[in-house]
Amino acid sequence: MPEVLKAPLVVEFPFTRSLGPVQSAFLTGLRERVVLGVKTGDGRTLVPPVEYDPVTSEEIRDLVEVAATGTVTTWAWNHEPRRGQPLATPFAWVLVRLDGADTALLHALDAPGPDAVRTGMRVRIRWAGERTGAITDIACFEPYDGQPEQPGGHTGEFENPLTGIVTPARLDYTYSPGRAQADYIDALSEQRTVGERCPSCRKVYVPPRGACPTCGVATAEHVEVGPRGTVTTYCIVNIKAKNLDIEVPYVYAHIALDGADLALHARIGGIPYDEVRMGLRVEPVWTQGARYPDHYRPTGEPDADYDTYKELL
Amino acid sequence: MTREIAVVAFAQTDHRRSTEESSEVEMLMPVLHEVLDRTGLKTADIGFTCSGSSDYLAGRAFSFTLALDGVGAWPPISESHVEMDGAWALYEAWTKLLTGDADTALVYSYGKCSPGSVRDVLTRQLDPYYVAPLWPDAVALAALQAQALIDAGDTDEPALAAVGARSRADAAANPHAQLAGRVPQGDYVVRPLRTGDCPPIGDGAAAVVLAAGERARELCERPAWIRGIDHRIEAHALGVRDLTDSPSTRLAAEKAGAFEGPVDTAELHAPFSAQEVVLRKALRLGDGVRVNPSGGALAAHPVMAAGLIRIGEAAARIHRGESDRALAHATSGPCLQQNLVAVLEGDPR
């Protein structure tokens, strides 16, 4: 069996989120070293606060300040912190019920080791040096043996309240394309295009997916297609994509390679954009070291008859 | 008159640490063919198709549309997808059959955990404002629940280890399991959970065929009749919940009719050993109930398929005549946040 193709794949996105009145007050409060909860109809104080009572689903807006000291309700020792977690040194994950609250907040506890942590222990917020209005404005909790702090009675009204936050997310993967697509990529590295024929309906799929979408059966029979093909349909792109150095307007087309029963898509070059047409015969243009054709250009052959590609539109 | 609906066939892959040589559809297709072969049905005969998966696992957008190639979605079929475990896809299919819109349904789900780090990937299902920015991984949250149970006196570390050991010992009879036989309890991953308390990370797929009424009897010698299914969810915030209990599981079980008679088998979706303790209590399972004879999620845990596999394993036991009344449970989210319970019965013998 050939070597399995693999490549790193990073999915990264800065999620921009708007805040409602309750979340805005809570996160703005953290920026100002104030911890706010929200009161439910039956008098419980939820920290972190939510906009709707989880029991009654009633809308709740009654903000109330709670203390920066509290009690650990459960914990777990994390000896190998992972990327993005609050502390880079071993720490305890904790749920902490802050003094004045009826529910617990998840965060990290900085402690020398698991023997220094227990359910029921008293802790206090350690604030981050620079605070932006995020849950990470609480750098972590730390052990605390003093009196419960008295909250200041803040109403949740702030100057310059936050209305949104940006939460970057990044996940790292190792992508492997599977057998059929790997065969396709391997062939491309030799400037060939291969598809697979369905054993049932005999159609040739390019690129191959390992399955026939019509019959729902596995495909395995390799068929080399092209290199020439026919433009079955196209569009003219007038907007320049970010980080793409192709001059607009250009033509993006569906191309039925000779021998294929499914059209690929690719850019058309070597011809003014307004002269591209359905039925145009084209061939791939490779650039040095490229992993796929840079574009397709006219072959100079007469246009294909509509009947030869009408099933592939 | 309510229609009777049954699981008539079940198939699953061998669950493995990595299936990097296969795409998702390539991994899935043999299972689809196997489950259809068991009934003699062709894809074109199926009245409704529903699947469960998550793009976050493999980092591929709209991957379920590619998986559709494996079921022959042309000409167009009646199809739906849930971004959840396949157990919830089965729930949707069951509802569809209840309406009378279809007589048969194909339900499948799959998960490739190997391309990414599933511990980190699952952080993306958490509250994005207060929790996800801290990146608490899936094991960490399960460990908080385990410690809460230990503090409450509901379990201790040796008892948790015994759950893992029993699961892997039972898995020795399951040719599809990823971890079977004696497995070292290992070091702490996040204390109090050790390697042996955590599910293996792996890739896999499963598929089930449902059929209504007489159609079920034609397709299966001893159909596993679904007497009830229900699913419930708890508050999103972990600090609002009592982590030692699972009221949502109990309520789902009650609504599914689980407490109306004794069950002989329970397939519980408990990815972490401590979660079995919570579920046994919520479901009032006594020592006489055979829990996870397949080895459960501690022996194989293809995310998004592991819950459907619980229903499939419970049904297969009824098909084989090893069970008369079985309970199947599936979970989703951190610390048993969402729970589905199904009650399956075979015809009296």
From TrEMBL, chain A:
A GO term, aspect molecular function: DNA binding
UniProt-listed Pfam families: OB_ChsH2_C, zf-ChsH2
Gene3D superfamilies attached to this UniProt entry: 6.10.30.10
Boundaries of every ChsH2 C-terminal OB-fold domain copy: 64-127, 223-286
Domain named ChsH2 rubredoxin-like zinc ribbon: residues: 186-217
InterPro entries the record matches: ChsH2_C (IPR002878), ChsH2_Znr (IPR022002), NA-bd_OB-fold (IPR012340), Thioester_dehydratase-like (IPR052513)
Keyword terms of this UniProt record: DNA-binding
PANTHER family: BLR3430 PROTEIN (PTHR34075:SF5)
Name recorded for this polypeptide: DNA-binding protein
Lineage: Bacteria, Bacillati, Actinomycetota, Actinomycetes, Kitasatosporales
UniProtKB/TrEMBL annotation, chain B:
Organism: Streptomyces griseochromogenes
GO molecular function: acyltransferase activity, transferring groups other than amino-acyl groups
Superkingdom of source: Bacteria
Protein name listed in UniProt: Acetyl-CoA acetyltransferase
NCBIfam families assigned to the protein according to its UniProt record, in alphabetical order: PRK07937.1
